């Protein structure tokens, strides 16, 4: 009688593995729920604000949290909660635009240089090293100061300081895979070099880069808020988390704690959610975790 050889169970699907990761790591589930809530608040913020976030009413200035104003009012009588909700839309828009731009450019530049190798790869590597030699927030300050503190310039500056992360990641991963069997088969089938990079190499690198995207979203939000806090970002009276914290900081010594506490809490939770989500994405997308 022939012995039946044991068979290995197939690896779980991505959805099943994601559900398992969320069950085993509640913080990842909380982070995913928080990031989803932030996106929904940003999307529907014009309909969620209880008051006009810009209109002032000095008769109710500097009132503490109450039933009428859940997060209190600022020095001009503006509802703090309405301004926080409105700022969510702007901050997430800046972060998503900047990270999308740096991700697209970084993946292509890093993929092409890693595939080509040689002088091009060395040149791109040295340029990235020079860019990363500068303190990134100081570099963002210099770029915004030179270009002007408009929203589009904040997006450009944030994208530039995030660009080296994607270039280095894509360059290293493509460099390892450029001689793989499926790449040789694609070249033998008549695919051009650019098509090989875009159609065969980068799609295999993008899932791992998604972890970096989530981490960079938190950093991009913090960068935009930091620029606004020091006066180089979005201009008042536009609601933005950094501006709200900067305006509230002037009243800390007078006991008006809500002016800085609630915007600071919103900023902290947003960055924390995206950072924790990045750790969860790493567990979900790492094939070594699918056992």
UniProtKB/TrEMBL annotation:
TM stretches of this protein: 26-49, 92-115, 127-148, 154-170, 217-237, 257-278
Alphabetical UniProt keywords: Cell membrane, Membrane, Peptide transport, Protein transport, Transmembrane, Transmembrane helix, Transport
Signal peptide start and end residues: none
InterPro entries documented for this protein: BP-dependent_transpt_permease (IPR050366), MetI-like (IPR000515), MetI-like_sf (IPR035906), OppC_N (IPR025966)
Predominant localisation class: membrane
Pfam families: BPD_transp_1 (PF00528), OppC_N (PF12911)
Family (UniProt): Belongs to the binding-protein-dependent transport system permease family.
Protein name according to UniProt: Peptide ABC transporter permease
Annotated source species: Methylobacterium tarhaniae
Lineage of the species this protein comes from: Bacteria, Pseudomonadati, Pseudomonadota, Alphaproteobacteria, Hyphomicrobiales
């Amino acid at each position: 009688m022939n012995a039946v050889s044991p068979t290995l169970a197939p690896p779980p699907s991505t959805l099943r593995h994601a559900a398992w990761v969320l069950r085993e790591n509640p913080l990842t589930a909380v982070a995913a729920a928080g990031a989803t809530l932030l996106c929904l608040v940003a999307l529907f913020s014009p309909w969620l604000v209880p008051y006009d976030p810009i209109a002032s009413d000095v008769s109710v200035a500097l009132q503490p949290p109450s039933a009428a104003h859940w997060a209190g009012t600022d020095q001009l009588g503006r509802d703090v909660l309405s301004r926080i909700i409105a700022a969510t839309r702007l901050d997430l828009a800046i972060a998503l635009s900047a990270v999308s731009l740096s991700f697209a450019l970084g993946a292509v530049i890093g993929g092409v240089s890693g595939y080509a190798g040689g002088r091009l790869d060395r040149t791109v590597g040295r340029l990235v090293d020079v860019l990363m030699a500068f303190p990134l927030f100081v570099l963002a300050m210099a770029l915004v100061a030179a270009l002007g503190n408009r929203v589009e310039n904040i997006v450009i500056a944030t994208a530039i300081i995030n660009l080296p992360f994607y270039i280095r990641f894509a360059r290293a991963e493509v460099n390892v895979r450029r001689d793989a069997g499926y790449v040789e088969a694609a070249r033998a089938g008549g695919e051009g070099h650019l098509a090989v990079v875009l159609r065969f190499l980068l799609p295999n690198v993008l899932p791992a880069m998604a972890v970096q995207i989530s981490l960079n979203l938190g950093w991009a939000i913090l960068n935009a808020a930091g620029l606004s806090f020091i006066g180089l970002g979005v201009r008042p009276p536009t609601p933005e988390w950094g501006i709200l914290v900067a305006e509230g900081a002037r009243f800390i010594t007078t006991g008006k704690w809500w002016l800085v506490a609630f915007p600071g809490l919103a900023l902290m939770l947003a960055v924390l959610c995206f950072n924790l989500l990045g750790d969860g994405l790493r567990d979900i997308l790492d094939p070594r975790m699918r056992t």
